[in-house]
Design goal:
Distance between the termini: 120 Å
Number of strands: 0
Helix content: over 70%
Structural class: mainly alpha
Strand content: under 5%
Shape: flat
């Protein structure tokens, strides 16, 4: 190959590289439908799935299960709990699969250890025990999701009381319904206020009303208190109703319900404490009476 041909080839490669760099760095015109879809809660799990396809073992395993066996799960999928915790469904499937594999492998390891020690139990025993143990362990992600989501709902309800009061104060100061909800959402830095801000921003960009967005969020995470707030603000926004007293009463009602739950839980904890205290008292009485009984028996 001559020098001229090498120069032409090198120039072509350099030009191709420059063209690729310019093509990658040039600003792209985004699709409005895709941009709005990325703001929706349904799109969140899909985006996380695509972003974590090369992530942890749990994510990769869950994505494979979700693609090959849609809806495969031992029991009902706690969709509302996962959305409350913002845990992707594929990660939930991955955790269930890992727990099942741990339960499946543990009896096999025990069988191998017994074999090394010279014991040979029937092969059916570790297989059956592995399947049963794996099935039981696979429900651990369900329990974790439901228990953590229950705590998250309580925290959401506490923060929602403050948010309702802030919305009522903004409406009392003359702000419109939409403006009052958006301003009130900026006054807190907790994850609850952040999630409400995201929903209000999604509603603003999608051209829908904020109460419709909050109603959808309430249905997704199974939080009726949020849906009631959305209904009150719908009356204020569409019919111009005065909702200050209604909002304050609603916040007080939620606080009273939370206080009642706390008192119920405290009473239940107190009743559970009576058993160990009673047992400790009986042991103490036995220790006191034992020497006297022993002397009576010796005489």
């Amino acid at each position: 190959m001559s020098t001229m041909q090498l120069a032409i080839l090198a120039g072509g490669l350099v030009g191709l590289g420059v063209a690729i760099i310019v093509w990658r760095l040039a600003p792209a015109q985004p699709q409005l439908a895709q941009a709005l879809a990325r703001l929706s809660p349904e799109r969140t799990n899909q985006t996380v799935s695509a972003a974590t396809s090369n992530g942890s073992l749990t994510d990769r395993l869950g994505l494979r299960i979700q693609r090959t066996m849609p809806g495969a799960s031992l029991g009902r999928t706690p969709t509302a709990e996962l959305r409350m915790l913002r845990i992707p469904v594929h990660r939930y499937y991955g955790e269930k699969a890992l727990f099942f594999l741990v339960g499946l492998v543990f009896p096999a390891l025990a069988y191998a250890l017994l074999t090394v020690l010279g014991l040979t139990p029937p092969i059916v025993l570790p297989v059956a025990a592995g399947l049963a143990f794996g099935a039981v362990l696979s429900f651990i992600p369900d329990y974790n999701a439901r228990s953590e989501a229950k705590l998250a709902r309580v925290e959401f309800s506490y923060a929602l009381c403050s948010y309702i009061d802030l919305v009522a104060l903004e409406r009392q100061n003359g702000s419109g319904s939409t403006q009052a909800m958006e301003i009130a959402a900026t006054m807190g830095d907790s994850w609850v206020f952040q999630r409400i801000r995201e929903e209000l921003a999604r509603a603003r960009w999608a051209g829908t009303t904020p109460w419709e967005s909050l109603t959808e969020l309430a249905q997704e995470i199974s939080l009726p208190e949020l849906a009631e707030l959305a209904d009150v603000m719908r009356l204020s926004g569409e019919e111009g109703a005065t909702v200050y007293n209604t909002l304050r009463a609603r916040a007080a009602s939620i606080r009273n319900a939370l206080l009642a739950d706390e008192l119920t839980q405290a009473n239940a904890d107190g009743e559970r404490m009576t058993l160990p205290v009673t047992a400790l008292a009986l042991v103490f009485l036995v220790l006191l009476a034992f020497p006297a009984v022993l002397r009576i028996l010796n005489t």
